[in-house]
């Protein structure tokens, strides 16, 4: 049986005076690919911050890999990739390989030299995202889509079981967005890495995710992709609070 790796139960959260999450429950099992969708300001990033331990819920419980978040110590099991615009200063004088190796700092120790083995681990992570040929380039010379692949490699270098991403394709052009998602699907399928992805690209992502959660202050839908696909646009519009028209692709998956 698949193990549960994220379990949020009845989570509520208030910023000063505004309640952003109420009775929010989410369950992600190993190997699953979840799209977390919802309108602007619906609490998606807040929920991710709670799962990452950056915010503490007012009520409710969060368990990671079966352990209460307060006592959870195996941070290396979770890789996180934020929006590109927040991710890195492009003027930063670092090569792609150095950026990826920086993902090993927790394991190696701050100010400790990287070994040959660490370098090989970083090159392997770059191979997974098909960026090994850019290893010696400066990070600032790459396109937005290529940079995001490098940040995924940095998140992968510690061999996580779960990758959490907050709108990783913001600022990436449409053509590269499709190949970026195709690469994510491969990561999930071939390497068994579970994914929890916040996105506004609902048509594209709900086509390739295995599960969908729709959040607007609380969870309105939580289930497998095929059930989500059967929902009426009217239901989704009522959860969003404004009209939503989904594009129904003939194929259920992005081409690979
Ligand atoms: N640090 C903060 N202090 C006060 N309010 C905040 C803070 N961060 C977020 N909020 C508010 O909480 C609500 C939920 O924000 P959150 O970023 O979680 O939503 P989101 O679903 O990720 O939005 P978007 O899709 O626009 O990125 C918003 O109304 C936002 O203005």
From TrEMBL:
Keywords in alphabetical order, please: ATP-binding, Nucleotide-binding, Transport
* GO MF terms held by the record: ATP binding
Q: Where is the ABC transporter domain?
A: 6-241
Q: Which Pfam families match?
A: ABC_tran
Q: Which residues form the signal peptide?
A: none
Q: Which SMART domains does the entry link to?
A: AAA
Q: Which domain of life is it from?
A: Bacteria
Family matches, as PANTHER family: METAL TRANSPORT SYSTEM ATP-BINDING PROTEIN TM_0124-RELATED
Which family, according to the similarity comment? Answer: Belongs to the ABC transporter superfamily.
Instruction: Supply the name of the protein.
Output: Metal ABC transporter ATP-binding protein
**Phylogenetic placement of the source organism:** Bacteria, Bacillati, Bacillota, Bacilli, Bacillales
């Amino acid at each position: 049986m698949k193990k549960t790796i994220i379990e949020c139960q009845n989570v509520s959260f208030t910023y000063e005076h505004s309640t952003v999450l109420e009775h929010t429950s989410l369950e992600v099992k190993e190997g699953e690919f979840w799209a977390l969708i919802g309108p602007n300001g619906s609490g998606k990033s807040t929920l991710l911050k709670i799962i990452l331990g950056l915010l503490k819920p007012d009520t409710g419980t969060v368990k990671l890999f079966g352990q209460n978040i307060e006592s959870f110590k195996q941070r290396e099991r979770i890789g996180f990739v934020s929006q590109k615009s927040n991710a890195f200063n492009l003027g930063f004088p670092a090569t792609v390989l150095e950026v990826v190796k920086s993902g090993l700092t927790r394991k190696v120790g701050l100010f400790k030299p990287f070994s040959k083995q660490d370098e090989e681990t970083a090159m392997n992570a770059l191979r997974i995202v098909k960026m090994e040929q850019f290893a010696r380039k400066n990070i600032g010379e790459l396109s937005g889509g290529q940079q995001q692949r490098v940040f995924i490699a940095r998140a992968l270098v510690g061999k996580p079981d779960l990758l959490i991403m907050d709108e990783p394709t913001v600022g990436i052009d449409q053509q590269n967005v499709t190949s970026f998602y195709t690469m994510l699907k491969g990561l999930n399928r071939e390497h068994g890495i579970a994914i929890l992805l916040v996105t506004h690209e609902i048509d594209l992502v709900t086509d390739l995710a295995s599960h969908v959660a729709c959040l607007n202050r609380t969870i309105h839908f939580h289930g497998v992709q095929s059930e989500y696909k059967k929902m009426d646009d009217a239901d989704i519009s009522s959860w969003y609070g404004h009209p939503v028209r989904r594009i129904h692709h003939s194929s259920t998956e992005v081409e690979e």
